[in-house]
Amino acid sequence: MLGVMSGVYKVLSVPPQSWMTETSALMLPLVKSWMVEFSSILKNPVQSEDPDDWSIRMEALKCLSQFVQNFPNLAESQFMGLEDAYEGRYDSDGSETSLESFIIQLFEFLLTIVGSKKFVKAFGNSVQDLVYYSIAFMQMTEQQVHAWSTDANQYVADEDENTYSCRVSGSLLLEEIVISCGIDGVYAILNAAKKRLDESQQERGKGSAVWWRMREATLYALSSVSEQLLEVEVPGPSEVTLGNLLEQTLTEDMAAGVHEFPFLYARMFSSVAKFSSVINPGVIDHFLYAAIQAIGMDVPAPVKVGACRALSQLLPDTNRGIPQPHILALFSSLTELLKQASDETMHLVLETLQAAVRAGHEAALSIEPVISPIILNMWALHVSDPFISIDALDVLEAIKDAPGCVHPLVSRVLPYVGPILNKNAPIDVVKAVYEVCFDPVVRIVLQSDDHGEMQNATQCLAALVSGGNQQLLTWNGDSGFTMRCLLDVASRLLDPDLDSSGSLFVGNYILQLILHLSSQMAPHIRDLVAALVRRMQSCQIAGLRSSLLLIFARLVHMSSPHVEQFINLLITIPADGYPNSLHYVMSEWTKQQGKGNSRGLPDQSHNHSFGFTIINQTWITTRSKAKVSPDQWTLMPLPAKILAILADVLLEIQEQVLDDNQDSDWEEVEAGDPEIEQELLYSSGTTSYSRPSNGYLDALAKAFNEDEDDGYDDDLLSAADPLNEINLANYLTNFLREFSQGDPPLFDHLCQSLTQAQKKAVQMLLLSL
């Protein structure tokens, strides 16, 4: 029989539009006999211990569903006379999970019937009975009680996501009853619910251990159609009203033990929130304060889940101010609960915390120092999770809107924003940060005198520009205004009268502007260069001066292949104490030993710079003596100093390769073994034409990052900085080869200014070519 039913189901599942006439003619003489067979299969009580019995019943229900959907006219005459196969026996406490698939199929079949205008009348006056029996199958099973008691995340997920279960299928059926039957469906649900609640109260009086399950299922059933029940207006007086029914139930169950019946308490909390518009305010207040207390008590996790659901919905709607001690206690409890939450429960707690902040504005300022760091840390840890990160941002926005909280919050947020956005944050996260932070962060830079705040704000804006790129200009609808804000920030940070500490991170900020908003920055390059020079000349921090020098390096490379235009621009911009900005920049640049390279420079033979330190051999230099007698330097032509710097870089690369890969051979080289020397020359020179060795990379990393303790700025630079694409070893090789071959007299003349170690490094490279 099972095989026959499966075959029938497959045939009937084909869409009938293309062969309706032929199929109807074929089916007509068979309908009556099939209906008799289906009725005989379904009329007897379900044998819970016989799996074959469930299977054949499921196939029969599937076939009947197809009849109702595809052949309503043929089935109508036979269907009205069928017996009710669902009256009678069922598992009243819902503990038999092995029947779940059969029950779900049964609900789907009933849903199909109720949704059909032709077949819904088959129930006649039995709709209330249908609801009554459906509620019984919506009880929690033993398996669900165990799973949800041990895993709060699963409980929250199953409640929120409407997973495939008897409870969800039953709620869909009740929803269809209200839609199809209107006010009669509402009466049926209310009367059936009252009957179930009364029976469960009687079972409670008799000492039943599972009385609460039917009560919880009834409240769940009502809550699942809360929107429909509240929307349908019941005309005239009624024996059962929704508000009275709920108030009576909630009042009766208030005394139930929270530890003994945690799921009933959880359902009461969520039911109060869903039906708050029809429940007495006194009852709502009782459960509101009970939920606040439950969050901080040692109660089962389902109770806390229900309390969070109630608070997240009741707090935004309450018109009565909550006493400050209660709201402070709630803040404290929620922050502790947040530390224990994960996944689904974290989302729920964050949602509740947001509602609490908005409801307790006056108290938010006192608790902000506790809440904000926790939320910020959570945001940082879950930035790649759009759900958790957006929930955290919603809480931060609620804190921002609370009186007096915006300034301390923004100050606290800024150190987190850069690292967050630097973790490959999705563009929607970057935009969310922009919408919350951009305006107040700009105001901090423009108005604050606190150096720490200005530094954090500068890093935040740099990260926003890096993460938002060109899209950032369009997010507020006025790209011109956004660009003016960014330029105003640059102007304030480059103000020569501003303390150097406040401008400490302006170099990275300017870099992000010229890398990601290059077309918008192009008209302002001259003003930018002039401001950079003024800021360099007035700053007192070497690190700031170095970072601004790097901006010139980026501008040089961005102007390629027309570097001479940028050089000429520098020549036209004055600099205090120097003929022009080019002389000043090159003078400062040559002091940064090994921190740069040269390209496309005009004749600077008459421009002198610091050469080598004159070492005093007469005493040990102490800090006090250094103040009295600072270091003395030789002077040398700028071209010679540039060649010396390049030779130092080459020497460092060669030494690093030797240290890492040729420790034993190095001693032989020092002893003068020409064969080994030539081999090492080759490793440090010619291999760079194709692909630099790991030794080169390690050496360069050490040479250029040895003073960088914070990897955050490096990460931002590596994301888009074209300088990172330059192979320095290849560049040095090509430059020295072209220079030595293109102008041998000048090359030889400049080499006379090199130290012996520098000369040897250059000679080793040239001999290997």
From TrEMBL:
Protein name: Importin-9 central HEAT repeats domain-containing protein
UniProt keyword list: Protein transport, Transport
Gene Ontology CC entries for this record: cytosol; nuclear envelope
Top-level taxon of the source organism: Eukaryota
UniProt domain Importin-9 central HEAT repeats: residue ranges: 126-366
Any one of the GO BP annotations: protein import into nucleus
Xref: Pfam families: HEAT_IPO9_c
